[in-house]
Structures are given as C-alpha cells and as structure tokens.
Write a structure and sequence with these properties.
The complex is a heterodimer of chains A (98) and B (416). Chain A contains one helix and six strands. Chain A is mainly beta and 98 residues long. Classes of the chains: A mainly beta (98), B alpha/beta (416).
Chain lengths: 98, 416
C-alpha cells in the first residue's frame, strides 16, 4: 500500500484515493498534422517503462481531484519525490534516472 | 531422450526411481548460435521447440536469467480458453486452444490439460449484453460458446451465490466447454525437455545484459557468461521486454505491472470448472491437488516488484467472499505477483522490430499462458521464414503506427 503525499492537500493519503494516469512529461506535439504515422504512434503509445526511478502523473481522484507528478522507484516502490506540474524536476538519488 | 511410458515407469520403479535420466542437459554456452531466444518461460521454450521440430533450426539457445518457467509461466492461474471478441485475437487464441488436447502426447510429458469449461459471469444488464455479443462473435468464428441463464450457472456451480439479493447478482454467464486449466510448470518442463532433445541449448542462470547492434542489425547478446553471437535474437521476456528493448535503443508500447494470484489450503473437490468475473475482477478454479487458485486484476501503476498492491488483492478477495460465501473461511496458503507486459490494446506484439534480426514476442499481458503452444508455433514460423505467420501478422509492432489495433481490453471477459 502506497502512502502518497498530495502536494495540494499536504496530507499522506492511501493509494486508493489516487489514480495513476501513466508516464509523466509526455508533451502533446504542437502540430499533429505535420507528424508521420510512426511519430504520432510514438507519442500515443510508446513508453519508457523503466525498471527503477519513473516519473508518473497521478490525480487525487477522491480528494482535491488535482493532477501532480510523482517520482517513484518501480522496483522498491519508494516514492522519491512528489512535485506539482511545472515545478523544477527533482532528481533521483544517484542521478541514475533512465 | 528416454521416452516416458508405463514401461519406463515400471522399469525405474523397480530400481527405486534412482536411475531416471536428467530431463535436460546443462550445456556451456557456445560462441555463436543461429537463433538466440531470450527468456526461458513457456513461450520462449515453445518457440525453441517448434523452431527445431517444425523448421529444423536446431542451432538454438534459450537464455534464462533465473530458472526455466520461473517467471509468469510459474505464476499464472493456468486458465486456457479462446473466447476473445475480435477476429484476429479469436483466431490466434483458438489456434492455441486446439493444440492443447494433443500437447501431452506431442511432448511426451503430461501437461495435465483439463478441459473443464470456463464460465464468465454477468452481474448487470450491461455485462450480460457484452457477454452475449462476445458469445455470438465466438460462434461466428467457430469457437464453442453458449449463454447460460442463472439456473444454468447455479446447476454447474452450486456454491456460487445466485440468489437475487446477492451483492453481485448472477444474471447469466458465457460458457466455453473446451476451455479449462493445465499444469503450468509441466508446460515449461515439457517444452524444455522436448526442445533439449532436439538439440536446443538451455542456458539457465545466464542473464542478458546487453544486445549488440551494429549498423542497424542485431549481432548477438552480452550475457553474464560472455558475448553470444547470433544471426537472430528473439526476445520472449514478458514483463521485462521493455528493459530488453531499451538495450537495443527501442521503446515498446508496453507498461509492466504486477498481476497477483494466490492459492488456498487444499480442500475436497468443490469446484469443477473455472469461474471468472470481469466486473468484480476475480477468477477462481480448483487445482487437482485441491487448492483454490484465485487470480486478481493487474495493479493500476507500473511496477517490477513481484508482489503487487495490497488494495488490489483485497478487492478481489472481497469479491470472492461475496460470490462464494462458503469460501470466506478458507485459509490462504501462498500469494505472489508476476510482472505482466500490458499493451494499449491488450494484445501481444509478435514479429520483427526496426532492428534487423531482432524479434519480439511480448505484450501478452494478463493472459499469455493459454496461448503458449500457439505463440511458440507462430513465432517459430515467423523467425524461420523471416516474415509474419498469417495468424501473427495483425499483431506486428507496426500496428501502433498504422492504428490497426486489436482492441481486446475488457472485450474478452478478461479481468483487467
């Protein structure tokens, strides 16, 4: 069971209150019409799916309903950082982000 | 390979079973192979077996970082069925299903395939309409399927709470009589032994640490036991496919998540079929040994820890207790998680990659065990002929560029 600190509610809450949206920092291309099919497919479907530190977008579904980012280790499940959208990116310990 | 038979059982029995041959060799890796298969689970071993047996490609190594069948092959709930909605998926899974009845004979290893039928429950009117649509689609594809009403479900599974005031009322179900369960470990061991007897080298405790790519084509794999050159590298590593793809500089449309299961203490026979419920995320059957085998849904976030989220398993057990009130006091024996590779369309990826000579067979997600024979067969054919097997063609990686996805999420009565 993860305890996630919502950066807006400023409380540690159970993972059941949250939904994980998926990999964070995937920017929607500015002009999709100019992309090739494979570039568009890359944006829509391809994921880094790392084993280790992973940046994810979460939403506090049963709380404030706001979106924020989590840096979480996918092996130990440790939450390394929680940060709001647009905030400077916290780095994983050791800087071994994949 | 010594053939297993009643005769050999009697012969070795008279010698206190001390004279059996080992089931497969433990060879030292050669410097190069025609084809290297990364991943010694059911799919990888089946691929090696059919490469050797059907296509005569015997210069093959299967590289496994742990022990054979120690990943998802040994961690699933052993269900075999083919009642998928879409034509492409239905054809592929039904091809696999039709191989199961003859598999023990073919491998000379008892995989204990037991076609005891698979039932998918409907608890709401919407559920029931989706199930009926799927049964109709199955029948158009020649797959045995039928609708059961509440009385029909109750007759087959008397322990199920079918009363109208149940928390999850049973309004009906789909029923595939030719589905069932098989012994998961035996499938890995049977394929391993049969592949080994065809000359395939099974390299256990050998971890792939890199894939050597030069000028856009794969040259072999770096392993914990040195570099192994290969003309073709075939990755069949389920949850860790994304990690392997990254070694070759590729990304896949895959997210790896734990899928949990658990077994109870052994009970007297009480459940002679497989009961699944998509709506409440659980599936349950009883092993020959008597344990209840219970499967849960996949976690909602990525993870490589082979355990999974507590709230997911709690949710499933709440549902089991509502569906089968008499199971509420059964004690659970073991609980584990396997790392499944989930595609956006819940269908596998089979075939070539943009790197020449590098192939992937992955993305089977939460339901790969049932497809083991078919997956190995079509992937071996794809590897040997360097073009997709007709059944595998719709599952090429290119579908994520063309948009021709085979949308099976939730459509197949699968618990996601």
């Amino acid at each position: 069971m993860l305890l996630i600190r919502c950066p807006y509610c400023r409380e540690d809450r159970s993972e059941e209150e949250f939904s994980c949206v998926g990999e964070a920092h995937i920017d929607r291309p500015e002009s999709p019409g100019d992309l090739s099919d494979s570039e568009w497919g890359d944006y829509l479907y391809m994921r880094t799916n790392p084993r280790g530190p992973h940046r994810e977008l979460w939403v506090h579904t049963a709380g404030c309903r706001r979106y924020f980012n989590v840096l979480r280790d996918t092996v130990s499940y440790e939450i390394l950082a929680v940060y709001t959208i647009g905030a400077p990116l916290p780095q994983p310990p050791g800087g071994n982000e994949s | 390979m010594e053939k297993y038979s009643l005769f050999s059982l009697v012969k070795h029995g008279r010698r206190h079973h001390e004279t059996w041959q080992r089931a497969w060799r433990d060879p030292a890796p050669k410097k190069s192979y025609d084809t290297v298969i990364v991943g010694g689970g059911g799919h990888g071993l089946a691929t090696a077996y059919y490469l050797a047996k059907v296509h005569g490609v015997r210069d093959v190594a299967v590289i496994e970082k742990g022990y054979l069948g120690g990943g998802n092959t040994g961690r699933n709930t052993t269900i075999v069925r083919s009642n998928y909605l879409r034509d492409e998926a239905a054809h592929l899974y039904d091809f696999a299903l039709k191989m199961w009845p003859g598999l023990s004979q073919d491998l000379n290893f008892n995989v204990m395939f037991s076609p005891r039928g698979v039932m998918n429950l409907g608890h709401t009117l919407h559920d029931l309409r989706e199930i009926e649509r799927r049964v109709n689609a199955n029948r158009l594809n020649g797959i045995d399927g039928q609708m059961l009403d509440t009385a029909g479900v109750e007759e087959r599974v008397p322990l199920l709470n079918c009363s109208p005031d149940a928390r999850y009322p049973v309004l009906g179900a789909s029923w595939q009589p030719s589905g069932g369960v098989a012994r998961h470990d035996a499938v890995a061991w049977g394929y391993a032994r049969a592949a080994d007897s065809q000359g395939v080298d099974l390299l256990q405790q050998t971890e792939v640490t890199g894939i050597r790519v030069r000028n856009g084509s794969a040259e072999g794999v770096e392993t914990s036991r040195g570099f192994i050159a290969a003309r073709k590298v075939a990755c069949v590593a389920a949850g860790h496919s994304g990690v392997l793809a990254a070694m070759a500089g590729l990304r896949l449309p895959i997210e790896s998540r734990p899928l949990q299961a658990l077994v109870s203490e052994p009970l007297k026979p009480c459940l002679d079929t497989v009961v699944m419920s998509n709506a409440v995320h659980c599936y349950i059957s009883q092993a020959d040994k008597g344990d209840l085998v219970i499967g849960a849904g996949a976690d909602m976030y990525n993870g490589y820890g082979q355990r999974g989220s507590f709230s997911t398993i709690e949710h499933t057990l709440q549902a089991v207790c509502e569906l089968f009130p008499s199971f509420s006091r059964v004690r659970m024996n073991r609980h584990w998680g396997g790392i499944v590779d989930i595609c956006p369309d819940a269908c596998p990826i089979i075939g070539q990659t943009p790197v020449e000579g590098l192939y992937f067979n992955c993305g089977w997600g939460t339901g790969g065990f049932k497809a083991t024979p078919g997956s190995g067969y079509v992937f071996a054919d794809t590897l040997a002929n360097e073009r997709p097997h007709p059944l595998a063609a719709p599952f090429a990686l290119e579908r994520f560029a063309t948009g021709a996805l085979v949308d099976e999420h939730g459509a197949a009565g699968v618990a996601h």
